[in-house]
Specification:
heterodimer, A: 5-stranded mixed β-sheet, 7 helices, globular, B: mainly alpha, two-stranded antiparallel sheet, 14 helices, 2 strands
Chain lengths: 278, 335
């Protein structure tokens, strides 16, 4: 219920925030006359919203299904932090190792589907989630869905759509202060995977993969659709970095941080990391 | 109970919104100008937000060692450019690779930086804040510093309904201040409005300007917001490929944003690398210094046919773009 109420708040803000910029000129002058006249003009919108809200209140009950994002490397759970890294073998039975220090990515536009039909979709600014291996709370995404709906697939985007990219400053998980934004070639970074491996020929043997880009020719948000077989209260989504990284990349391509053709290819590869774990 | 909440909540938000409009600063488009590119509906101008943006613009707290502010390289009195510096310097005397551009009429810009690296004004400030040669700071640290300062906490609280000091709010506030930097009262504008007349030099210069320059430096903003190369021999010490760095297209090699010419008299030195100290040198380049390249605009091939008298007249016209009310607007200065 809380979720729907906050959606209504968003709706109101869109309509009420400075009508002077969205209304035709003859209305602008009238509205600029004073706040009381403006308030009068907004009464129909207000009444409409009261009606909408009461309809919502009558809506069927909701239940919470939790998306549990599990950043893993093969069978090892990835944990990162200021003083935490996750060390793993690149392949079992070999001596090649790597340490992951940073693994985070955007999950957006989550939808539940019955075969090819979308049954429910998360919308609004709250539908952008930054899953970060260093922040356990960020790996639990509650979805408030109508009770009893049938679905057999979950779909979501890895990254941020171009419309959101093209807009101005945003807050919450989309705040540029989260470090998931390129300053020198503006746009969101969809996924960051960083660490080190003796295989890397770079400074301090580090590797850095920053995937992103939304302009023509570099658009790399990935749409992911996964089957959901059992209707548990939790859907585990594994993000297995071992599907993304391989020996050859660590040796020859330890840094990839520029939007373009190659990062677009790597993003497709990153989409393969995801599977439903339960 | 729920129904009551659903009745009260919209009413509450409705009242908040109505009162939030009270201190709006309407943004007006000067007569004859195009509609702005900036999406004001996502960030409506309000006085307390503009004031916060102004405070941030002049505050070195945005740089890693608290020494450099936006205004260090964008001085109001010189058209928000860095007069006398070919390449601007950041913290610890580090030198960048480009001349700091004049900030003017940014609401009409569709891209920012000399190479168009930034697509939205809100995101522009991130570039100088995080560039190692400029402020060399990170946004999480900027926000942490601001959160620790009671004066800023109260200013953010005045400016934003949720009172939070966030990256979004800081960037939107900086945008709001920059959106107020409108230069539209130069002699050129007074002439267009019938409030003044050009003298004979300025009038001849205006005719020459319309014939030779206006296809890129299009009135009334004096830029068409495109990227062009103008046959400048590359500075081999800078390794700057211009627009190509962003698009990856060889056709964009050494292309840079067409700058507005408003207040050009005071924003010297000129060009993306500040190589020309005077307007005379700029016009000498256009008449006699153009180096050929595959992507040189056709009208610049062979140089512009300008004699000394033409150049004098053109410069007389360019000086009519100096807007004293803009350069000395007390509203632009910190309180």
């Amino acid at each position: 219920m809380a979720n729907q109420a906050s959606d209504n708040q968003n709706l109101q803000i869109v309509y009420l925030t400075d009508p002077a910029f969205i209304l035709p000129n003859h209305l602008k002058a009238w509205l600029n006359d004073g706040i009381y006249k403006r308030a009068i003009a907004l009464i129909p919108i207000y009444l409409g919203l009261v009606l909408l809200s009461s309809l919502n209140a009558k809506a069927q009950g909701l239940e919470t299904v939790s998306l549990q994002i599990m950043p893993v490397f093969g069978n090892t759970i990835i944990k990162t932090g200021d003083e935490t890294i996750t060390k793993v073998r690149l392949e079992s039975g070999t001596k090649d190792s790597l340490a992951i220090s940073n693994f985070r990515f955007y999950i957006s536009g989550t939808r539940l589907m019955l075969n090819n039909e979308t049954i429910w979709a998360e919308a609004g600014i709250g539908s952008y989630h930054l899953a970060d291996a260093s922040k356990p709370a960020s790996l639990q995404i509650p979805l408030n869905i109508p009770k009893g709906i049938a679905y057999n697939r979950i779909a979501f985007n890895l990254g941020i759509d171009s419309l959101t990219n093209a807009g101005g400053a945003k807050g919450g998980s989309l705040d540029a202060a989260n470090g998931m934004y390129w300053a020198w070639h503006s746009g969101y970074i969809n996924m960051i995977l960083e660490g080190s491996s003796p295989l890397c020929k770079t400074r301090k043997h580090g590797f850095q993969y920053h995937l992103g880009g939304f302009r023509q020719g570099e658009y790399c948000m990935q749409k992911i659709v996964l089957p959901v077989n059992n209707k548990a209260a939790t859907i585990q989504i594994k993000a297995d970095a071992s599907v993304f990284i391989n020996r050859e990349m660590l040796v020859n391509e330890a840094n990839s941080m520029t939007p373009g053709k190659r990062v677009t290819e790597l993003s497709k590869k990153a989409a393969g990391m995801f599977s439903v774990g339960n | 109970m729920r129904k009551v909440i659903y009745l009260i909540l919209p009413a509450f938000i409705f009242l908040c919104s109505a009162f939030a409009q009270e201190s709006d600063t309407p943004f007006s488009v000067p007569a004859g100008w195009p509609e702005p590119a900036y999406d004001f509906s996502s960030n409506p101008l309000r006085k307390p937000v503009i004031e916060l943006g102004k405070a941030l613009f002049f505050d070195p707290v945005l740089s890693r060692d608290n020494t450099i502010s936006c205004a260090s390289c964008h001085l109001p009195q010189t058209g928000f450019s860095h007069t006398d510096h070919d390449l601007s310097h950041g913290i610890e005397n580090r030198i960048g690779t480009r001349n700091s551009p004049a900030l003017v009429n940014l609401a009409w810009s569709r891209s920012f930086m000399w190479d168009g690296a930034v697509h939205n004004l809100d995101m522009q400030a991130l570039a100088p804040i995080t560039n190692p040669d400029e402020m060399d700071e990170s946004m999480p640290k900027v926000i942490a510093k601001l959160q620790a300062l009671p004066a800023y906490r109260s200013q953010f609280a005045k400016a934003f309904a949720d009172s939070q000091v966030t990256g979004e709010h800081a960037l939107k506030a900086l945008s709001q201040y920059m959106l107020t930097l409108i230069s539209c009262r130069a002699k050129y504008d007074l002439v267009q409005n019938g409030e003044a007349v050009f003298n004979e030099y300025e009038q001849r210069g205006y005719s020459l300007f319309k014939r030779h320059c206006a296809s890129c430096h299009t009135e009334p903003l004096f830029t068409n917001n495109s990227f062009e190369t103008i046959g400048l021999p590359p500075d081999t010490s800078l390794h700057d490929t211009g627009r190509m760095k962003i698009t990856g297209k060889p056709a964009d090699l050494h292309k840079y944003k067409v700058p507005s010419l408003r207040n050009i008299e005071v924003t010297y030195p000129y060009m993306h690398d500040g190589r020309f100290k005077s307007l005379q040198m700029v016009l000498f380049h256009y008449s006699s210094g153009i180096e050929k390249s595959n992507n040189l605009p056709r009208r610049l091939k062979g140089g512009l046919p300008l004699n000394e008298e033409n150049k004098r007249d053109l410069i007389a016209f360019l000086k009519t773009l100096t807007d004293e009310t803009f350069l000395h607007n007390p509203n632009y200065l910190p309180n």
